[in-house]
Amino acid sequence: MNKKLLSILFSVGVFIIGCEKAPHTPVTSSQSKSDDQVLHKVRQSDLDELAQQLDVSFSLISNAVPEKCDKTKTDGLCFEASITLTPQKTILATDWQIYISQIAPLHNFDSEEFTFTHLNGDLHTITPTEKFKGFIKGESKTIVFRASFWSLAESDIMPNYIISGENLTARVIDSTRAKIDPDTQLEYVPYVNDYTDYQHHFKRTKDDKTPWLDSVGFYQRNSALGDTVLDVSKVIIPTPKVVKYSENNGLLDLSEGINIDFGNTDKSLVIAAIERLAMFGISQHAKGANLKLSIEADKTKMIGSYTADIDSTGITIVGVDNNGVFNGLQSLASLVSLAKKTVPYLHVEDEPLYEFRGLLIDTARNFRSKAFILKLLDQMAAYKLNKLHLHMGEDEGWRLEIPGLPELTQLSSKRCLDLDEQSCLMPQLGAGVDSNSSVNGFYSVADYTEILQAATARHIQVLPSLDMPGHSRAAIKAMAARYTKYSQLEDKEKAEQYLLHDPNDTTKYSSVQFYNDNTINACQESSYRFIKKVMTEVQKIHADAGQPLTRYHIGADETAGAWLESDICKAFIANNDYSVTKMSQLGAYFVERVSNMISDMGIEPAAWSDGLDHTNKENMPAVVQANAWEHLPWGGHMKVNNLANRNWQVVLSIPDVTYFDFPYEADPKEHGYYWASRRTNTEKVFQFMPQNLPAHAEFWLDRQDQPYISDDTVQTDEQGKIIHQPLEQGRSFLGIQGQLWSENVRTDNIAEYKIFPRVIALAERAWHKASWAVPYNYIGYKYSQDSDVFTQAMQTERDKQWQLFANALGQKEFPKLDVADVKYRLPTVGAKIENGLFSANSAFPGLAIEYQEQGKDWQRYIKPVKVNTEVKTRTMTVDQARKGRTVVVKYN
Questions:
Q1: Which domains does the chain have, with CATH numbers?
Q2: Chitobiase/beta-hexosaminidases N-terminal domain location, by residue (predicted)?
């Protein structure tokens, strides 16, 4: 559920087709030719050769072609692109199909030789017509198409075009396969040509003011951090509430390790933090510095609070609970530098700002390995995040084994090419044909138990999410396969027991992701039997793993206009005990019923704000978690206020700043979607003021880098009814959650790149209340770039603190991530050449930079150097094993 991602989607589409060269002269009937020399129905050998010999090339033409768009679709907005097919061998086979994943809906195309058809979701086909003349060696056919909105990033384009034929084994066209860059260790799709044109490739519309920063632009921006690398030996991330350093600047030597007195703590609940210290060279040893741990309960403090003291006698950490002791140990680890085994004398009094400090990982669209999740839990705990929202059920995949419902994982954990979807789901999102590829998979009960136990040891609550009633195609197809299986066995009761769709429903609808069959029928009892069965099994797994299931995320968002022609729903509307009288009420009815069902099981419901918006508060349980994901320039604070004023537990999931599937920077080479934010770098996350959402209008811009206004005053409609009001006095939020949606995140390395280091800044904002943040105005206020509530003094203080934070990341945290084998994003180098002098800097001072003059080897950059050619430059890890993206600095 990449929130409203399709409000601006982009991406691969296919197709207007014509020949670049003169058509091949057909063979006359008088000529004697073999089957290979005349047009013929495709055979397996032809299919194999097409997969091997067909070179595919994608080129973006323009994002500004309004005259060519279909005015009835997506506000008449579209981009134009081309795909060129060049065979390296003459292949005269026909009657084949090419399956292509294309996120943006097609507007129009022209072709005599080919037909382009949308199947479902992002899946489309190209098929030859009767006028197809075959592929002739070296002769290119260019495919032009228009599709909705824009394509602004090369990562929009999906890999793995599939070619198939009737009763033949499908193949992936080799030239469309993704590859791994050996320097960055990141995936890329080589058939995509560079986006290079500012007006046609980079700009969204004529009003788009987003700057496309080159190396000189980054150099100027990075220069705000100063030329001096700061001392970060006293920095703790996230920042403690109170920290006082000794006047004599004393240092405690940890080079011989630590001698631990566990006191009354539960060793099993702090050992993960001890092991992290050992990873940094601070091991347990009888001759080490004394480390005394203890618990002193204090109900006036939030869970996880602690105090810490470091002096010449050693280290003392006192937590209000085991979680507090654990957090104190992580603060000790934050003080440690890999290069220097001393920590400063200090006194810390610390507690979290927010109770909920979370991260969502979408494992449903593209699977994330168990190893990835376990590594992620380590890093979440390191920065005191305490909620893992594990999104495991979607349109494109179901990732959790449910005892008693084997079809969910036997079928819906895999995507391949099975048109009947009896062995796997269709190959959405460029999945290819290999059901064993890394984008496929699921967590067995044993796997999930291991994840839960690892989370418990790190004081992290796992919140499972299996989205419903929309975003549920994987579950629907699995239960449809179950229906078919038991129908063939003539067991009608079992066939219909957990059926999630009405087979006689003729409703025509399209979800936000363009599926026409992804919504659970809200009117049939078998849907609720399925949910109860799933929740009962998930609850049992949690209980057996030692982490009781106390909260579950329903999803409930982006429900399409389903059910309208379902006879079951028509009958339900005519006669039910729930006061449901209109089809438009069915979505709210579903959410209310499921919420109360799981509440009766002792599980608190959570859901996305749009799914909760139309529910009746009186029909909902007392405790409800609402994830608010509305876009701030579009008035997002208004929905947030409404939810909080209902006295629901609001978790801020604001896409402008917490969606980690978005790009770090506005550059076509940067990976990610961009429907709400074109650039969400670590500094922007650091700037977030969760207590006052509308105030960001003073210093943030909208997705086209235009100013916007946030009106947080009381507002009424023409009848005088209040349609918006500020937060009620004293209202606040439960917490903050970062989101990694995975539509185009196909590898664990890309996932880590998207999460880190942004998540560290998110942890800072979730744990620590910034001194420079604008307090919320409960009377209401209208913010803009002219309102000046965020004063120059506040900005100066914020930027000063960011400077220290950025230095700490570059000098201390990145080397620790290297030790943990986390593939964090290495930033693009800022660089310039002036008067023959090459100068470079980084967004994170202390991070290593290297450069290369033409014809020479790569060199470590230390200080400005004389050059006489253009220069390539990039950042790199301490061990030089991984590099950032290379940029070229022009010689003037």
A1: 5-202 (2.60.40.290), 242-350 (3.30.379.10), 469-621 (no CATH), 830-889 (2.60.40.10)
A2: 52-217
